[in-house]
Amino acid sequence: MSEDFKTEKELFAALIDDAVKTIKASIDDFSKVAAEGRDTAASAAKKAAADATGQLNDLSDGAQDYMGRGAAHMARSVATNPFAALAIAAGAGFLFGLATRGDRR
Predict the structure, then answer these.
(1) What is the rounded distance in angstroms from the CA atom of residue 32 to the CA atom of residue 71?
(2) Where on the tree of life does the source sit, at the highest rank (predicted)?
(3) What is the pLDDT of residues 54-83, one digit of tens each?
(4) Which candidate among 47, 51, 62, 66 keeps its CA 20 to 30 Å from the CA of 97?
(5) Backbone dihedral region of 102: left (phi > 0), alpha (psi from -120 to 50 degrees) or beta?
């Protein structure tokens, strides 16, 4: 093997070794940044989930309160006008029956 070829081979090997070290360092840096980003993203997702849960709980409480007031109002209306409530229920039942009956006559 000639001396020039041997020197070029050693220089090429050193160049490849430096490139591998640089790539490994870049991968390590990227891994660190990705881990920090993952932790930040996880924290943001947890906070968003907690906020959404709080909002859903508030909406649920509001809906329950609204339904409770509606049921109380309906109970008062039925107690005040039982015959009107019966007529409304019969009419609604009749209309529901017509709607679900289809083409059967």
Answers:
(1) 58
(2) Bacteria
(3) 888 888 888 888 888 888 888 888 899 899
(4) 66
(5) left
